């Protein structure tokens, strides 16, 4: 989990590594890049946990999120962490539930619970053209 400042409220919140696509980048490439930029870890993707739409009630913004399951491979020595990330944490399910009022959105816990329920789709669900 990453701990970051919510730019709208100024509060510190917890989230899975997240981000956006760069021009010409595949979704898979973006996952690897964003995870490295936000955590300093290289990963091996295992599957897709799900797709989510989340509308921020106080701002009206809607976010489309693709959540992946991955194994942490190794921490990259000297990796530069995105300045918006305050800290990187390894948390248990119980610890994450205890922080439920500090999660970026309800989707953070929902996708963890989907995975705990056995939900995971193969990576070939995503097609690049």
Automatic annotation (TrEMBL):
<protein>
    <submittedName>
        <fullName>NUDIX domain-containing protein</fullName>
    </submittedName>
</protein>
<feature type="domain" description="Nudix hydrolase">
    <location>
        <begin position="1"/>
        <end position="113"/>
    </location>
</feature>
<dbReference type="Pfam" id="PF00293">
    <property type="entry name" value="NUDIX"/>
</dbReference>
<keyword id="KW-0378">Hydrolase</keyword>
<dbReference type="InterPro" id="IPR015797">
    <property type="entry name" value="NUDIX_hydrolase-like_dom_sf"/>
</dbReference>
<dbReference type="InterPro" id="IPR020084">
    <property type="entry name" value="NUDIX_hydrolase_CS"/>
</dbReference>
<dbReference type="InterPro" id="IPR000086">
    <property type="entry name" value="NUDIX_hydrolase_dom"/>
</dbReference>
